[in-house]
């Protein structure tokens, strides 16, 4: 199979290398991704009858639908395939791939997906991949706030925060994110693995999806307000765990009681 | 070491058996635990100089402090040691023990704790064990709501809920609770492993602890309101995952849009 | 002054009659308002150099901006002027008018506004009228939830709800909305003066405006989730006070405690 | 009627003067109120068969019940009568009196209540007065947050906050509190008419009352978290409108978008 690769960011580079190593023939266009589909000399002009276009970036449902329409109108085939996982899983071929769109194209590219990820899902019509990613990130955002509040309550109650992380890691809610981010949050260290402004955008989009379907999501809405407050304080480019700066209480010595 | 065991509920029975199997001499009083310390012919009358009393149930900070005072006034020694974990970990000797109080007594009973649990923490003065348990359960309650909202948004968006659970289980927020409770929640099955009314009580106590220290905990407060609503609907004796009955939207066919 | 009047709904009819009674020359086009500006034979074709177009409906900021652009491109002048107030104030000439856009046009039509309303504000550039209306309705939506929760807490605590309304009406937070809607809410009567789905849409738009500017609005966000839940239960066409059906607790006889 | 008056704070002084002016015989004990009922030489020792004791301070339900029990055990009669209203209404005899307890005693003292207040309610058994006050203050606390969020959204959207107050004051949600506190909040001026820590305490007690009855109060719970955050920042002794310092966004110039 011949694979054209568009955009070599941190993720793309790791993924392209994995494909090369597995014997795929990979051609790379290292151009700016934004608007690349619709612009003059853009991808769309290259699309012809039967050609396949796979979008592995995280786009929203509407954009994905417009790309799909443009491509299929020219006789092409479209698959959205956003991934769950960041740099390390990309390098290790351990991504989770959330594909949706043209099923025949999907079946053709499964061998490539198997190189890139540990698990691939075909989720149905275009938009389902984007929606699944929003739901996952919404749950993640609420959980990040839950951890942050737990750390805040611990320290204000005279408990050791590192011990809390240890206890959490031994129980039913132990998870890699708490293990990875918790110690850094205690140190107020937030190197941007997933920028807070992107997390907040995903929560906004998830809540909008819920609004469309009249689904009440009070915990996610409350978590979103914390992320918004963090963004308003200029923390948008830090890791999304920087919401901890908003949640944790700056205790005054005075009349807290 | 001679161990007197008071109360043989599900947890106590498993724990006493483990101690017996490991060669401890165990005497059991199978009486009702409520008020057992202070009542006539209660434990307090048996306490004398140097005797140790260990409370492994989950009591609140105030009760624990009162017991501690009564015991030490009679020359006894007190250790609170609530556990994290339910029936299965108790049987397997895989509990997490959150001890606090008399450090000398703690050091004496560590061999017994090592039989009961996979990890034991000594957290400081009386009350710290109870507080740690409240913090953990507060984080757990917020996470349960996060999962429930995720399932609700998924199904209303046309996504398969089982697939969402699979995707979650492959990523950074994978955790045993989602794995265990998620499939049952989809089936609206809530056999009481940890009753909702107890979870809501712990969230109330955690929020009260935060209130005392002027710590703002908006996500936990919002999750608590969902648990309260569930209790108000008569779901208090079901598992705490039954909050899903409140969170999930009963879609009307009509004018949701 | 010659006034062309477009759209005779409940509000428009009352307003046009008031203008006629005050001696204005009024021409009425009783057509469907939707898309009337941009469609073939629409208003835009009638707009020429210097002509004024005033939009007194409640449109969102983006739509208002697009209309403004289309009109000014043809040499016309545009004023948005959404109103605060419903049928009765419209009939009595007691509306509050939130105008924004072309200041010269505004000054010309002030005599007409004085007939329609008790007070007119000029708020600046196009969009400011729409924004002001969103802010007002957001505060109103939070207050409606505050009242609903108060009624719920009262009845569950054994207090008389009518007495609560009396007490509220004698104090610092007495307001016409509580006075008007409160007694009906106790009776579970929600004749649609302002439909819940419109109120929820305004809260969604207000929260989106806040999101754009990174403003955290946790109380409004929580109130919005209650309105969404109400919409999901099929209450969208009732009055927005029907959120009370969601807030008030359906007490189970059983294990609420 | 002979009236003994205990405690001459701002409120008590104004009330005692009004009684004197109306011809009541008033004896004043100007002692510290705290624990006055139960302490040695306290009020309880003066209580005999048929004597009446009226508590017009704001106490919680439990304290009121304990006082009631102590007094009636000695053959006395008890009435709780917390008031709605602050210094000015107290001086003007325009308080709202929320009485509960001994109905015969109530009927006897109505003439005195008529001097002190513009309206008196008899609400039933002891505790009902305290509960009614909590419900009213809970609604007030949510409304204060609603106003604060409205001011914050306005200013961040480029709207004039004074104009927002004007518009609010002309519509269905116009109320004395917005009129009185709004302008001061814009100026970040919070002279303590009702201290924030007392408002937060009342919201905590109202939420606890709801918890007891399994009533979900998400908007009040969210408002309470804002008041707690304010307390944590050392604003507890300022007016409760100082919650605005927490709600309003400190905009960073940087990456809010």
Descriptive notes:
The structure is a homotetramer of 257-residue chains. Chain A contains ten helices and seven strands. Chain A is α/β, with parallel strands linked by helices and 257 residues long. Chain A folds into two domains: 2-125, Rossmann fold; 130-247, N-(1-d-carboxylethyl)-l-norvaline Dehydrogenase, domain 2, CATH 1.10.1040.10. In chain A, the strands form two sheets. In chain A, strands 3, 4, 5, 6 and 7 form a five-stranded mixed β-sheet that branches. In chain A, helix 5 (128-156) crosses helix 7, helix 5 crosses helix 9 and helix 6 (161-169) packs antiparallel against helix 7 (176-186). Chain A is elongated, with a radius of gyration of 21 Å. Chains A, B, C, D: Pfam families: NAD_binding_11, NAD_binding_2.
| Structural category of chain A | alpha/beta
CATH class of the largest domain in chain A: Alpha Beta
Please give the domain count of chain A. 2
Large-scale geometry of chain A: elongated
Give the CATH architecture of the largest domain in chain A: 3-Layer(aba) Sandwich
Task: Return the average pLDDT of chain A rounded to an integer.
Answer: 89
Uncertain ranges of chain A? 251-257
Helicity range of the residues of chain A?
40-55%
Largest interface: A-B, 69 and 69 residues
List the total number of helices of chain A.
Answer: 10
> What proportion strand of chain A?
5-15%
- At CATH level 3, the topology of the largest domain in chain A is Rossmann fold
Number of beta strands of chain A: 7
Query: What oligomeric state best describes the polypeptide chains here?
Result: homotetramer
Order of helices and strands of chain A: EHEEHEEHEHEHHHHHH
CATH superfamily of the largest domain in chain A: NAD(P)-binding Rossmann-like Domain
Through-space gap between termini of chain A: 68 Å
Radius of gyration of chain A: 21 Å
Q: Main β-sheet of chain A: number of strands, strand sense, barrel status?
A: 5 strands, mixed
């Amino acid at each position: 199979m011949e694979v054209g690769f568009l955009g070599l960011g941190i993720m793309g580079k790791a993924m392209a290398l994995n494909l090369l190593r597995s014997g795929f023939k990979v051609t790379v266009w290292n151009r700016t991704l934004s608007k690349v589909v619709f612009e003059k000399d853009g991808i769309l002009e290259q699309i012809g009858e039967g050609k396949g276009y796979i979008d592995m970036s995280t786009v929203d449902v509407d954009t994905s639908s417009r790309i799909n329409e443009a491509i299929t109108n020219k006789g092409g085939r479209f698959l959205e395939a956003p991934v769950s996982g960041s740099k390390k899983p990309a390098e290790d071929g351990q991504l989770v791939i959330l594909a949706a769109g043209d099923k025949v194209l999907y079946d053709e590219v499964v061998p490539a997906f198997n190189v890139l990820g540990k698990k691939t899902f075909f989720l149905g019509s275009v938009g389902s991949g984007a929606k699944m990613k929003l739901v996952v990130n919404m749950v993640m955002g609420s959980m990040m706030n839950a951890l942050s509040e737990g750390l805040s309550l611990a320290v204000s109650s005279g408990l050791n925060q590192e011990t809390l992380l240890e206890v959490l890691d031994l129980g039913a809610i132990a998870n890699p994110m708490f293990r990875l981010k918790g110690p850094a949050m205690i140190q107020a260290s937030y190197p941007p693995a997933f920028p807070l402004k992107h997390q907040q955008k995903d929560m906004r989009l998830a809540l909008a999806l819920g609004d469309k379907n009249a689904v009440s999501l009070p915990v996610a809405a409350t978590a979103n307000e914390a992320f918004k407050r963090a963004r308003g304080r200029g923390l948008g480019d830090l890791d999304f765990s920087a919401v901890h700066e908003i949640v944790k209480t700056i205790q005054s010595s005075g009349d807290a009681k």
